[in-house]
Every structure is written in structure tokens, then in C-alpha cells.
Specification:
Distance between the termini: 94 Å
CATH superfamily of the largest domain: P-loop containing nucleotide triphosphate hydrolases
Number of domains: 5
Shape: globular
Structural class: alpha/beta
Number of helices: 20
CATH topology of the largest domain: Rossmann fold
Helix content: 40-55%
CATH architecture of the largest domain: 3-Layer(aba) Sandwich
Strand content: 5-15%
Strand order of the largest sheet: 8-11-14-7-15
Radius of gyration: 33 Å
CATH class of the largest domain: Alpha Beta
């Protein structure tokens, strides 16, 4: 029974609050005497009893079974549980299907275990949860691990809705009428992503809910309220859709929201103030401690020794203590991960360095005595921590970070300035015997060019000056491509941002698609959508490609009449005629290729004889 229903029942049964005495039996004492309690104090007494019992479960050792006749305490083993029951750090939950192994990148640190346990307890009561933590602290990873544990064979159990997008239309969450595919000229109702997730029993995650518009928050507030504490036990979420009636969610539906905020000096977070925040039950995910960071880095990057891991974490902490500026990005756990990836690759090239087994905390210049390795680690730190600086304050801040990193690595000020102002990586375009480009090597990074089935004569590329700033920029872009990292190029108009990408795509034979984004850009421009289409637009594109291939395969002088017939059919919009001529030319081209291959084979056989 929910809280609101309980209050109604008490009023109907006992009368108005505190108007009459109500003595209730409250069990028996140890001596056999009967205990009584005032009925009006019953809710407070029960609340305190339940709270004490739950605190005892969370604080005391998690021994689920203990024999009274034996001193030895026995815990429930996995073999004692039903295959559909999972023990999530002391909280028993039911999963959708049986599975043997669960592959998750989550490392069970004490902070992660505490957060998972809190999320699991809120999930058992079907409460809407607000997950608060510092940026890049693993909120999405925790939810993904929980969903993978309870729904091991379900695809896309988590549905993410990014509320930071101010252009998000609230109607797209509920649904709208769209043109019918089966009955032209009519409209049919298409459910939005939120309603569809409710019916399918998905977990909806409202990311950055504190940055959402009030219009969207007002829309989802009734849904959150339906999962409040006053609901019936087992009650499901519901939402009223105008014109469509009430939508009741499936049994496995759950609501999560995330909020990223910077903690204060004592580690606490500010109280959320967005619209409807008091309806959510907040779970704070603390930032990992230094010991937990060491465990995470050593688990994810086993090539790094314990001394190297501690030194890299100390360097990251020193950079983080410098703070940030308005135009600079905060240094968080994501930057530590990028830095460790680069450091692990560099250390693998110097197997004699970074293998110290001493228990003392040595400085990085003692862990890595090779000066060349420390220089490359310094350049890797530049790419991650202080590779950008647009304003004057940001450039001053990046200079301070560079000095801190150089001091941690034991590099002199002159060597730091040389690395930042005069050092230039090697730049080499590898080719095969026929002069075709096969790979690009910039510094230690090597990218393979896309293999071409046949050499197509392309237009002459635009001139590109390969000077030091261009090589440095290409080096950083190539490193990011090799590590599958997205790149954001920032600069004034005409500084060569698009040109350097175009030049790299030309060298590597990669297709390049350029999109000019603006405030008028719609999602359908990126992912596609239904819109009126003139058949002449794709037909002209096919015609252009056909004429190029036709001229390379057949003689234009001998087939001048055929080519004119094709042009006439396309110009007059006779698509059946044009398609028929295209197919006929393809058939003739196949016959010619087969004859050429047969003649080449006969020549080879005669040559062997």
C-alpha cells in the first residue's frame, strides 16, 4: 500500500488525526508480556524500525545466513541462488534471462560498489533516480553495467535522451502524426521515443537534466511523479498523452537522470535547483580516490608498472590542481585515460624504461631515465592537457601547465621551449612500386591508405604547403585518428582547418564528406528523413557516373549515337528507356571484360607452353 492510500485508510478506520486514543498490540516481549503502542505513533515506530534494519544490513557484514548452533558464519553462495537471481554486492535482484559471463569494463572499486549498491536499492523500490557526480566519473558506465547485469541478452536496454539540446521538441518525446507509408494522403500516429520506451520496458536516462528546458521538464514531471513514494507497491509508471489516453509503462521500465557538477572543497555537491528536482531521489557518485585510480589504471593498462602508474597519476593531479580558465576544458578522468593510452604505447617502445619495482614513490625522471621517452611523454601531455589555447588567459594557463608537466618529467626549461617551438616530427608518405600511396607516417604513428581496386584519374588536388605548423597539426590529428578519438579544430576563418583534413583524406584515399552546420541544420540532414524527391536529381547523378565509366570502357566516337540516345532519354525524363540503355551497356561491358580475361589467359598458357 502506498503512503497516500495508507493515510486515507487510517482516516477512514481510526478517525481524524489524534482525536481519539488508539491502542494497538505490538507483539510480545522476551518475557512473554504483551506490548502495546499508540496507533498514531505506529508509522513513526515502523519507519524507525525499517531504517535501523536497513542501516544494519548496509553497515554490518553481509552474512545472509548464520547458524545459531555454530560459531562459523556461512554466506549464501552463487550455487544456492536461482539462476535468475543475481547478487549485486549484497542486493538480490532478478534478471531477465540466464547467462554465464557478463562482460563489463567496470572495475569494482569501493566507490563503484557503493554507487552500484545504492542504485540497486533504489531500483528495487522503482524510484526515479538522479545520479550526480563530477564530469567523466562513470555515471553512464555504472548504469550500463547495471543494465547488462539484469538484462544480459537485451539490446539497447538503456535509452538516452540528451536534455542539454535546447532544440529538443517535447512533442518528439510523446509522438506526433506523420504521413502514412501504406495509405498515401493520410496521417497516422507515431509514438515518440519516451512512450515507446515505456511500452517496451526500457530504462530511460535523461542526461544533463539540469540543463534541460522548463518545457521538457514540465512534460516529464508527471511521469516522474507516478513513480513517487506514495505509489502502490508494484505500481507502474504512467503518463497521460493528450488525445491518446493514459500510457502505462511495462514492468521493467525505470527512470534515471544524470547531472554533472563540480564538487566543493569538502567534496559535496550543490543541491539541484532545476524544475522538478525534488521529485527525484539523488545518488551521489564520489570521485575515485588515488588508490582507486591506481587500481583502475593498472587494470586497464597492464603494460604500465605500478611505479609508472603512480607517477602518471601524480602528474595528472598536479595539472588538475592548477585549475582551469573560462575558455579551457576541465581536466578530468577522461583526460587521464587519454594520457595513459598514449603513455602505454610510448613505453612499449622502450621496454627497459618504466619497469621499476621499488615500493617508494619515485619521480617520473627516475622511473623513465631515457630522455627521449620523457620528451615524447611531454608531447603526449601537450596533446591531452595543454594543446589548445585561444585567448590570452588560456595561453598563459597552458604555459603554466607545460611548466608543471616539464618539471614532473625532469626536463629543463630550454628543452621544453625547444619541444614546443622548434621540434618537428618526421613526415613521410609511403608508396609502392607503382607510385601509389600506401601509408602515411607522422612521427611514431602510421596510418594505412585505403586500398584502391583500380587507379582512377582524379582531379588535381589543391596545393598544400607542408611546413612545420602544418606537420605539427597533422601529427596531432593522425594520433587522434589512430586512437579513434574525435577531433575539434578551432581557429579563425582561413587558417587551413578544412584544407589539412582534405589533404589527409587525399593522401589516405579516404572519402571526405563536408557538412556546413548552422542553426537551421536539422537532424534529418544528418540521419535522413522523408521529403519530396524529384527523380531527376538522382538520375542526373547516375548519368554523370555512367558517362564517365562509359567513356573509359567504350569508344565515344563509335558509340556517339548510343550516347546521344541516352542523353535524350534522361533529358526528356523517359526513365524506363534510360534504365534499359544503362543495363544494356553494362551487359556489353561485362562481355568485353570476360573476353579480355579469356584472351589474357590463353596468352599466358601459350607463353608457358
Amino acid at each position: 500500500m502506498g503512503e497516500a492510500e495508507r493515510e486515507k485508510w487510517e482516516t477512514a478506520t481510526l478517525g481524524e488525526l489524534y482525536t481519539v486514543d488508539c491502542t494497538l498490540g505490538y507483539g510480545d516481549a522476551l518475557d512473554g508480556s504483551h506490548l502495546t503502542i499508540d496507533g498514531w505513533l505506529m508509522p513513526i515506530t515502523e519507519l524507525e524500525r525499517v531504517r535501523s534494519a536497513r542501516n544494519a544490513i548496509a553497515i554490518e557484514s553481509q552474512d545472509f545466513y548464520c547458524s545459531d548452533t555454530e560459531i562459523v558464519q556461512e554466506q549464501i553462495q552463487l550455487s544456492d541462488l536461482c539462476p535468475l537471481v543475481v547478487n549485486l554486492h549484497g542486493v538480490l535482484l532478478v534478471r531477465s534471462s540466464v547467462t554465464e559471463n557478463i562482460s563489463s569494463p567496470l572495475i569494482p572499486t569501493p566507490t563503484a560498489v557503493k554507487a552500484l549498491r545504492s542504485l540497486a536499492l533504489h531500483l528495487t523500490t522503482r524510484l526515479p533516480v538522479l545520479v550526480t557526480s563530477a564530469p567523466s566519473s562513470g555515471k553512464t558506465l555504472l548504469l550500463s553495467h547495471l543494465a547488462e547485469t539484469l538484462f544480459p541478452h537485451v539490446q539497447n536496454q538503456l535509452v538516452f535522451i540528451h536534455l542539454a539540446d535546447t532544440s529538443l521538441d517535447p512533442r518528439s518525446l510523446l509522438g506526433s502524426h506523420v504521413s502514412s507509408r501504406t495509405q498515401p494522403g493520410t496521417f497516422e500516429w507515431k509514438e515518440g521515443i519516451l512512450v515507446r520506451a515505456m511500452r517496451e520496458g526500457k530504462w530511460v536516462v535523461f542526461k544533463d537534466i539540469d540543463r534541460g528546458s522548463n518545457e521538457v521538464l514540465a512534460l516529464i514531471k508527471p511521469l516522474i511523479e507516478s513513480l513517487g513514494l506514495d505509489k502502490w507497491i508494484g505500481g507502474r509508471a504512467s503518463l497521460e498523452v493528450v488525445g491518446r489516453g493514459e500510457v502505462v509503462a511495462a514492468d521493467t521500465f525505470a527512470i534515471f537522470a544524470t547531472r554533472s557538477a563540480l564538487p566543493s572543497r569538502n567534496g559535496t555537491f550543490a543541491t539541484p535547483t532545476f524544475y522538478g528536482a525534488h521529485k527525484l531521489h539523488e545518488v551521489v557518485v564520489a570521485s575515485p580516490t588515488t588508490e582507486e585510480l591506481t587500481l583502475i589504471v593498472q587494470s586497464r593498462y597492464p603494460r604500465l608498472s605500478s611505479q609508472a602508474t603512480s607517477g602518471l597519476i601524480r602528474l595528472w593531479q598536479a595539472v588538475r590542481e592548477l585549475g582551469t580558465t573560462v575558455s579551457a576544458r576541465d581536466v578530468g578522468l577522461r583526460e587521464l585515460e587519454k594520457f595513459c593510452v598514449r603513455a602505454e604505447q610510448l613505453i612499449s617502445s622502450y621496454p627497459a624504461d618504466g619497469s621499476s619495482t621499488s615500493d617508494e614513490d619515485l619521480p617520473l625522471y627516475s622511473i623513465f631515465p631515457n630522455t627521449s621517452l620523457r620528451e615524447e611523454i611531454f608531447l603526449a601531455a601537450r596533446d591531452v592537457f595543454f594543446g589548445s589555447g585561444v585567448t590570452a588567459s588560456a595561453r598563459a594557463h597552458t604555459g603554466l601547465i607545460a611548466h608543471t608537466v616539464g618539471s614532473q618529467l625532469g626536463l629543463e626549461q630550454e628543452r621544453q621551449e625547444w619541444l614546443l617551438s622548434r621540434w618537428m616530427p618526421d613526415f613521410d608518405v609511403e608508396t609502392d612500386r607503382d607510385g601509389r600511396r600506401t601509408a602515411l607516417r607522422v612521427g611514431r604513428t602510421r596510418l594505412l591508405a585505403k586500398p584502391m581496386k583500380r587507379e582512377i584519374t582524379s582531379s588535381t588536388p589543391r596545393p598544400f604547403a607542408v611546413h612545420r605548423p602544418a606537420i605539427l597539426l597533422m601529427s596531432r590529428i593522425v594520433n587522434a585518428i589512430a586512437l579513434n578519438e574525435p577531433v575539434l579544430l578551432t581557429g579563425e576563418t582561413g587558417t587551413g582547418k578544412t584544407s589539412v583534413i582534405t589533404h589527409l583524406a587525399h593522401i589516405l584515399h579516404q572519402p571526405l564528406i563536408s557538412l556546413n552546420l548552422s542553426n537551421q541544420t536539422e537532424s534529418s540532414d544528418l540521419i535522413g528523413g522523408f521529403r519530396p524527391l524529384d527523380a531527376r536529381v538522382p538520375a542526373l547523378s547516375l548519368q554523370s557516373k555512367f558517362l564517365d565509366l562509359f567513356g573509359e570502357t567504350f569508344s565515344r566516337r563509335r558509340n556517339e549515337r548510343f550516347e546521344a540516345d541516352v542523353r535524350k532519354s534522361v533529358a526528356q525524363g523517359k526513365w524506363k528507356r534510360a534504365v534499359g540503355l544503362w543495363r544494356e551497356s553494362v551487359k556489353l561491358a561485362k562481355d568485353r571484360i570476360m573476353k579480355k580475361q579469356s584472351s589474357d589467359l590463353e596468352l599466358q598458357e601459350n607463353g608457358v607452353k
